[in-house]
Every structure is written in structure tokens, then in C-alpha cells.
Amino acid sequence: MESLIALFIGKLGLDMNHFELFCAQLKAKNLKKKAHLIREGSVCNFIGFVSSGTLRSYVRNKEREFNNDFYFDNDFVSAYTSFLTQMPTNCNIEALTNSKIHYISYEKLNMLIAQDNAFLKLSKYVSDTYFIRKCKRETSFLKNSASERLKGLSSLYPGIEQRVSQYHIASYLGIKPESLSRIKLLTYVNK
């Protein structure tokens, strides 16, 4: 929770009272590996903060799953479009390791905002974070090769290859696992 305190006070310019009010509304959830935080078709009524663990967000069609985000320690986690619209989500969020999430409900966050609009800074920060991540990913698919997308992923999530399987990384990059192995081999040979 120290990184959350640093966010409130350092980045958002809020004070310890704001942090304590926020924490009073948090609930905790422990997820076992392979358990889902949310499933497709549900309405996401929370924003979570990953206290520990690794999670993935994915969508699926009739044939396969496609990873579209990862969440690690100190990340916010949510099916955010569903959270904003309060409509059912088309994504799933699954724990890749045992994970602990502290979360605030849609209603409780809006209650805090109604009491003190300084909490809008937190909402803006979460929205900005999601928007920037999604834009960077979209741009990387339009402009970059798979090798460049891998480099970008590694810089965005340092150490991801030690925490997430090659299969999931390949899915996030939009390539097959064997293509990822080939890219990594070429990168290693060219060093």
C-alpha cells in the first residue's frame, strides 16, 4: 500500500486524510492462480489495485483467446470500459499467479467524489493510465514489427518474461509462440 500512498500524496497532490478515506472503502480479494477476477458478460463494478500477483486480461472468439493487457504489483486492474459504462464487459481477467487485489466499488468511488471532488484526481489518473496504455498498444500494432512490439512490451513491463508464459506474451503481441521463439533467437544471435 506504500506505492498507493505515494500515488495519492506524490503524484495526485492529495493528503493522508484522502488516502485514509479511500482505504476505508476498500475491500480485499485473494485469487488463486487461474481464478477469474471478472468474466465476459458481467458488469465491472470495481477498480482494483494489485497488491501482489500477476493477472492477464483477454478476449476470445469462437476459436481462441487474445491477451490484451497484463497487470502486476501496484497496477490498477479493471474491465474499465464496463466500469465506466456499467454495461457488460467483453473481457476476462484471470490470475496467472496467486494474487491479492484491493478494490473499490463503483458506488463507493462515486460517493467519495460526491463528498470531495478532489477524488476526481484519482479517477482522472486511472482513466489517463488506461487511455495511454491502450493508445500505445494500438499504435505499436499499426507501426511496429513483432520484434519492435516485443521490445516495447519488455520496456513497459520489465521482467515480464520471468512472470508470464511465452504463450501469453505471444498472444499479446499478436503472433504465434513459435514466431516469438524465432524473434528471441534472432535477437540473441544479433547481440
From TrEMBL:
Residues 29-116 form the Cyclic nucleotide-binding domain. Pfam families: cNMP_binding. Coiled coil: none annotated. InterPro entries: cNMP-bd_dom, cNMP-bd_dom_sf, RmlC-like_jellyroll. Gene3D superfamilies: Jelly Rolls. SUPFAM superfamilies: cAMP-binding domain-like. This is Cyclic nucleotide-binding protein. The lineage of its organism: Bacteria, Pseudomonadati, Bacteroidota, Chitinophagia, Chitinophagales.
